[in-house]
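FAQ: What does a multi-protein file look like?

Like this. Sequence, then tokens, then the next protein.
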Amino acid sequence: MAVMIIVPIVAFFAAYAVTRVPEPEELVNNQISYILASDNQTELARIVPPEGNRQNVKIEEIPKPVRDAVLAAEDRNFYDNPGFSITGFGRAALGQVFGKSGAGGGSTITQQYVKNALVGDDFSLVRKAKELVISAKMARDWNKDQILQAYLNTIYFGRNAYGIGAASKAYFNKDVKDLTPEEGAILAASIQAPSRLDPWTNRPEAEARWNYVMDGMVTIGAMNQGQRAAAVYPQVQDPALTQQTSVAEGTNGLIKQRVIDELAAAGINEDQVNTGGLKITTTIDPVAQNAAVDQVHQQFASLQQDLLGAVVSVDPKTGGVRAYYGGDDPVGWDHANAGIQTGSTFKIFALAAYLDQGGSIYDTFDSSPIQTGDATVTNVGGESCGRCSAAEALKRSLNTSYIRVEKALQGGPQDVADMAHRLGVATEIPGLGKTLTENGGPPFDGIALGMYPT
């Protein structure tokens, strides 16, 4: 037992003695990443790290409330801790033993800086041990303000902005010295997940994180309750107005964002994409993609100017997306990834649930008006088949028949929701939350008629 304790301690101090802590500017290593179509040749987007974007600022130039916002978001005991978290290391060790890559967390600002600037973030105890050793030595060799300054000049804030100086320009088009506490909290909130927490594209989640940071500022004594109560969520500027280092035209910019989201889900974060020199091959078929975009433009050419549309073509064998169109603005709202009511298309999920429970497409249903809740459901144009098969009612898109199909299900509307999710309808949508639910409870009967955004 004594050996098990002494050996790691000796190893720690031996590594500590020979470890050198480099300066922040020695550590920049930016590379271009490419997003390619399925032919591995057609370029959809190019992610160019912002050489020269990083604008180092001195700690004195950063308003204290802005610094406090970062501490409230990332490390509330920064000025008191030894530079590392033993409990976080313990969780990572257990995660390594049990194969849980999501274990760990609780890293201090010093550890985050060391991870981002020196040791990387691969999932291993060796990497975590290096992080611990360097963090401990850095906490001894540097004072806390030096560490915080290096961290704030290195961390990624989204919008291709590395360092708080660049982030201040990207989000608010102002020098960092002019940031308000509320604006500082926006930047601090973005550190956790820069693209997902951009207020321009996902205000609900971004504002929830901002509230967490602002409340944290009260907790650490950086703001009083009166200031907190008076705080107003600030506006950020349109990302399109900032310098774009992601080369992507039209809807390819939206494809790029979906790729980044999928990579993040696979454990490859946005910072790695921006600096890793990656070649990312997608399932997008360049022929199908061009055809989809051309078709949208042709169809919309003679229609009203404010009409919105989206196209997603999915390979039914693999689930891979072959073509994707969410709009022509590469940094605008993605209508292909937005929650929109589907209407009568959703009747197929009611039928699928009915068939799954042993029903038949030849079973017949009445098509007369039907009462559900406070509403009387009818068919468009007074259409009716009297009493006809589920298949015929689907062909005619009869609302009344499919309310009755739904009522024949063992679980009613919930069975329709469950079948839709089983067949691939998203369970959550950014900015919308959980889908196919009525305020967190079972859906209403109208789910069979496509009343819920998906």
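And here is the next protein:
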Amino acid sequence: MTTYASFAESIGVMDKAFISFVGAGGKTSLIKRLSWELFQMGKRVAVTTTTKMDANQSPQFWNASKVQNEEEIEETIRRSSGLGLVPFFYSAVEENDKLSGFSPDFTERIFKKVDYLLVEADGARGASFKVPRAHEPVLSEATTHLCIVMGCDIFESYPQEGLFFNFEELSKTPGFHRDEIVTPFTIRKLILMKDGYLRFARKDRKIFLVINKVDSASTMESMIQIAGEFYHCDFEKIILISREEGSPVISVDNSGDRVAGVILAAGKSERFGRQKLCEKIEGEAIIGRVVRQSLESKLDSVCVVLGYEAKQVRKCLDLLESHPALMWINNPNFERGMGSSISEAVSAVSSWADAVMIILGDMPAITTDIIDGVLEVYKKYKSKICYPVVEGRQGHPVIFRKELFPDLISLSGDTGAHKVIELNAEWAKVVEISNGRSQMDIDTAEDLEKFKSII
């Protein structure tokens, strides 16, 4: 959990950004706050919409201006700067004091003239939660930051019109029941719907889930707990924010940072014909090479799971025996396969570790840099699963967050954790790496000779 002094700081202040707000639960209030913060920082900021905004919600520091072309945009920016105001652009005034906005193309023309453009790209008619319809939101391709907003007042209450946009249609959604209290799990399913806002995710666009209206200390405390339910690898951050200007902003981490490395070294080496982990590569045992690289990484501890010929394997690690981060785990059931070793290891570290990184003891090319690279991505996104991808294929090592410990502890047989990865694919964050040789494992004497020939 990280506390920021401002909304701008929480999303990361850059030289230039096109920030679109979608969803419900106070988009306009957030745009007001962010525009003021950026303006106070000396940024050239402007506000507009691709839908409609209420003229009565325009604050005193906005200069509401009707424009139709680039000349009028530039003139409004100059006039607003002279007045010490933030330009707010609209195209027409409609009934009920609604101000119409522009097409995405026109907003991109505005963006060329300023450092920051804040765009309300969705309508919700005062509701606190919204699932977009097929034609919504009206989002520009130029959007660099997408804020998906919802109000925290939707939780622990029964669904009702006013809180939920397009309530009648939403009521037909599987899992959403009028007569059941709204839970974080229900909302998570709606947020992650196939046709929801995450369909606009792309590599060069940062997406923030912003939970608004967190206006009291008690509400903040409960929202910190609830926010962990909304993790998705496409979210840059989950932000908790109050409507009160100047109040602190909190970014919620979904788990702690303590990661235990688990090196699987209990197998029988049947295809090799003898204990392969003690075979030497450049004078160093295979298992010694893997353990050394792991101990030199940023892992909080390194646990070696022993089984078949445990004394012989441990003897290969004599020079590392005294390392304070090294732990030993004995698997009496090693003959039952890799799953039993993962189960023993996770059970042993579950009381203190927030995640485990599974490392195969027969993969001597997994370097400290690869381990730290996967760790860095995991700690940034707090994904339930994190692993490298090499040439389009899932590689090793693999990190599993604490929520998946029960699934790992229940493993048996020789299939490893593949099923756990499969069942939780939507939670995974991948790390692209180009070193294909890093994924070489030593199963046979021929594999060992091939490895020696290319290192």
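Q: Is there any per-entry metadata?
A: Some entries carry free-text notes. For the entry above: The first helix runs from residue 7 to 11.
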